[in-house]
Amino acid sequence: MEYARHKTHVVHVGKVKIGGGNPIVVQSMALGTFIDPDDIQNSAKKYATEIIELANAGSELVRIALNSEEVVRSIPYIAEAISQEGFDSKILVGCGQYELDRLIQKYPDNIKMLGKIRINPGNVGFGNKRDEKFERVIEYAIKNDIPIRIGVNWGSLDKYVVQKLIDENPLSDFSNAILRKAVVVSALESAKKAEEIGMNPDKIIISCKVSKVQDLIAVYTALAQSSNYALHLGLTEAGMGNKGIINTTAAFSCLLQDGIGDTIRASITPRPSESRVTEVTICQEILQALDLRYFRPQVNSCPGCGRTNSDYFRILADEVNNYIEVSMPMWKEKSLGAESMNVAVMGCIVNGPGESKHANLGISLPGFGEKPVSAVYRNGKYFCTLHGNNIFEQFKKIIDDYVVEHYYLR
């Protein structure tokens, strides 16, 4: 399905193209580890391990916090470690807050190894130092040809902008409407300042992060109507588990279907010991569900009911999902388009044959009281019938043969 995309400037971040109708980019953030000031090199290798895990999972950009001198000193070692795994340091996005101006001045050669810098207008500087520090950061980015993301967060809003809006609306309650307007005004005014300093609009990405779904939709709709900057979507502080996943999916889906958003990140809270790769998978699944990008074959399977025969169809669906997950890295290297394949695993005769015919490959298992045979369909037509106790092994070979026949590079 093709959606009309909001027209934005194209921003080049290393080899990644953001905006201008290019594929929507998946971004994540590394949690990071303690950087031992007495052992920067080995600490950096540990940090790089997480970055590599995220990149291998499909994160095209990985954000790191520039929150200390030790982290900035570790950048060359992180870059070296990830390059050994085939990743350029330009996949790294440096997130600067209060310390950014000072760190750029002290370690200019390290920070220019990054692909992009994130600036939070609310935290780059305060009082009469705010504009001065912002200008120095922008001038540094221009000099070193580094794109910036002006990243406003309603948890750290520019107090000057908020107060100005309150003064302009003295009879209004301090409501979400004011906050929505404040984040948009802060982002657009900061982008305008960056352009006045000399930065080209095709070097600017904007984000306005809020934590409520309707606020995010309203804010980004306003941004899309007011500018042509590339937009980074993020529902900040989305939460943990199903809450974070569902809220992020709801917000992103509404905006992406309206053509708004050029790069996305799922800002969910990982459970203890949970890998941050989960946030990459969430973004990929959202894009794939909307037919905007494809990352791995889709397995459709029914939920099961009284007609399905014991647990076998659920076991088979799980086996097929796991087999495709394991096989996809090899298919990615040898094939073109296998990620768009659709496979159906169905549990009875009611919807099984019909759903299987809609897929590239489908198998319809016997339901309760049905003849113990499993019909397989290929490209909408009956292909064969499987019997016996090793149906998964038989169906796995059919999947392999289909991938080789339809997707392998010749």
From TrEMBL:
Catalytic reaction annotation: (2E)-4-hydroxy-3-methylbut-2-enyl diphosphate + oxidized [flavodoxin] + H2O + 2 H(+) = 2-C-methyl-D-erythritol 2,4-cyclic diphosphate + reduced [flavodoxin]
IspG TIM-barrel domain residues: 8-283
Residues annotated as binding [4Fe-4S] cluster: 302, 305, 348, 355
Cofactors: [4Fe-4S] cluster
Cofactor note: Binds 1 [4Fe-4S] cluster.
Domain IspG C-terminal: 299-400
Molecular function terms, GO-annotated: 4 iron, 4 sulfur cluster binding; 4-hydroxy-3-methylbut-2-en-1-yl diphosphate synthase activity (ferredoxin); 4-hydroxy-3-methylbut-2-enyl-diphosphate synthase activity (flavodoxin); iron ion binding
Family: Belongs to the IspG family.
PANTHER family reported for this sequence: 4-HYDROXY-3-METHYLBUT-2-EN-1-YL DIPHOSPHATE SYNTHASE, 4-HYDROXY-3-METHYLBUT-2-EN-1-YL DIPHOSPHATE SYNTHASE (FERREDOXIN), CHLOROPLASTIC
Role of this protein: Converts 2C-methyl-D-erythritol 2,4-cyclodiphosphate (ME-2,4cPP) into 1-hydroxy-2-methyl-2-(E)-butenyl 4-diphosphate.
NCBIfam families the UniProt entry points to: ispG_gcpE (TIGR00612), PRK00366.1 (NF001540)
Full protein name: 4-hydroxy-3-methylbut-2-en-1-yl diphosphate synthase (flavodoxin)
Lineage of origin: Bacteria, Pseudomonadati, Pseudomonadota, Alphaproteobacteria, Rickettsiales
Gene assigned in the entry: ispG
